[in-house]
# Entry
Amino acid sequence: MLRAKPRTLRRSSYIQLPSNASHAPFRRLHQPAVDRKPEYPVQPTVTSKDGTRTFRSRQHGNRALPLSPLLDPIAIDAKEKHTRPKPFRLEGDRTDFQKELEANPFARALATKVRECALTKVRLPKHFLLPVVSYLEPPSEEEHGKRQQTQVHVRPDFDLEVPPHLRSRSRTYVLAKRDIITLLTGRSKWPAVVSERMKRWAGLKLGRQWSALKPKQDFKWHEETDEQVLQALRAQVVRKLNDAWDRGDIVASIELEGKDTACLLHFEGEAEQTTQKNECGEESVYDMNALLGDEKWQARCVGHRMAGTVAVVQSSRVTSLRTALLRLTDYIGKEES
# Structure
C-alpha cells in the first residue's frame, strides 16, 4: 500500500507582523531585482547657422526639429553665464601696452558699456550718456507722519543723494549734452525718458495701476535740471583736482623737468603759448575759467594755489581726473568752453 508523501509547505515571501507594530504589517523578505533604465545612444544634433539654437537630426533626411530650451545646451549656457564664477586671473606685471592703455582716458571712455539714448536713439558708450532714474523724495521732519500727495521725480542720476529704497533700479539714458537737457525741459520732451519699468516701479510705490500712470501728471521733471547736472560735473572735477594736487600729480608748468605731461590747465592769469598733444593728436589744454565759470569753483581749487598754467603729470592715477574733464567739456560744448 502506497503511503501519501507528506506535503511540504512553501515558504511564503511575506510574513505576518503583529498589528501593533510601528511599521508596515507586511515586509518583503526577498527584494526583486531593480530594473535599470535602458541606455539609449545619444542622438546627433546640429547647431543653427546663427548659433542660437540646437536641432535634433532625424532619419531618412527629414527636417531637423529644435530642442526644448530645457534641453538645449546653448540656451542653458546663456542662462547660466551670469552666475558662473569667473576664471582665475593670474596677477603679474602688466606690459607696457597695458599700462599705456590703462592711463588713456579715451580708451577708458570707449571701453564702457553701450547704451541707447532715449531721445535720439543713438547708441554710444555710457561715458557719453547720462543715466536717468525716477525717485521719491523723503518727507521732511515737519511733514513726517502727515498725509501728503506723493509725486515721482525724474532726473539724471549724477551725485543723486536718495536712499536706494526710494529710487528705481531701472535707468534710461540721454546724451550728456547741455543742449539735450535744455531741449528735454524747454519743449517738454522729457516724458520720452520715462520707461515702462519706471512706471511699474512707481505703480508699486504709489499703490496704483502702472498702466494708468501718465508721465506729465504723475511724474515731475525739474526745470533747473541742466544747471544741476552742470554743478555736479564741476564739483566732481574740483574734487579730483584737489586730490591730484595733494598727491603731487599737478605741478607748475615751469617745473616739468623729465616728466611727461598728460594735459595743461589754464587758470587765472596769462596762458602760456604751449601746445600739448594727447593720445589722439589733439590739444589737451583746458581753459578752467570757461569750464568752472563761477569764481566760487575756482576758489575751491585748493585756495587759489592753482594759478596761471599748471600741468598734470602723466600717470594712471590722473585718469579719472582727465575723464571728468572730458565729460565736463563735452557737456558744456565748444561754444561755451
Observations:
- The longest helix spans residues 225-247.
- The chain is about 25% helix and 15% strand.
- The CA atoms of residues 177 and 331 lie 4 Å apart.
